[in-house]
Design brief:
With 260 residues, this protein is α/β, with parallel strands linked by helices. It is 35% helix and 18% strand. The chain has one domain: Vaccinia Virus protein VP39 (Rossmann fold), CATH 3.40.50. The protein contains 10 helices and 7 strands. It has a 7-stranded mixed sheet.
Amino acid sequence: MAATFLRRLLAHPLTSNLDLDDPSTTELRRQIISAKPFLKAIYDEWYILLAREIPIGHGAILELGSGAGHCYRFIPQLITSEIILCRGVAVVADAQRMPFADSSLRAVVMTNVLHHMPSVRRFFAEASRCLRPGGKILMIEPWVTRWSRVVYTRLHHEPFDRTAPDWSFPSSGPLSGANGALPWIVFERDYDMFTKEFPDLAITEIRPLMPFRYLVSGGLGLRSLTPWFTYSLWSALEEALKSQMSQLGMFAFVSVVKKS
């Protein structure tokens, strides 16, 4: 009850009580990121990390879930896409049925997208088909740690079920359906299952990160909880706690490569 009251009290006025599956909500979220310097700096950091990990060579680079973000500023010639029609996106496409030729992509990048896919097996099959050998799936996703379980289950509106028996969930809509624990389930809890079902894909890195900054930024749904000028202080705190990220991280950078 207290957590629900707190979420309502801190709700961002632009997106409170809006339909997440409405394209206009995605537009508003883009405005929120631009208007909140602390939050924009977080996304900038994530995009820089994704850009650094893209393999060299031939092939296009696809971003899934581009609607509210600005990853294109960091990755030249990025193909932006979204599952719903919205302004500024090059391709409307479902990640589970991607309109790209076999072995045509160098990388697929995404930020907070995988945990919204109601059937990630279809996505991995499609990504494996579309990626060239040595191509990568690169993502920033929610992660399960002792600290994040408290935050996601008490202060976040999306479902977060680390005990879910399967990798799928009933979807209420393209953006509203979710299980925030899904990336951890696939890549950590069910690691052996993933490697068995997708032998041509290899998990090359899982890096838990950012236990506090996204939370105090207010994210996309809440007002900022700290002023912009404190960003470097929060960054320094997280750097000092780097060795504890497996217990504290709210997100993780995950890299998956298609084997040669």
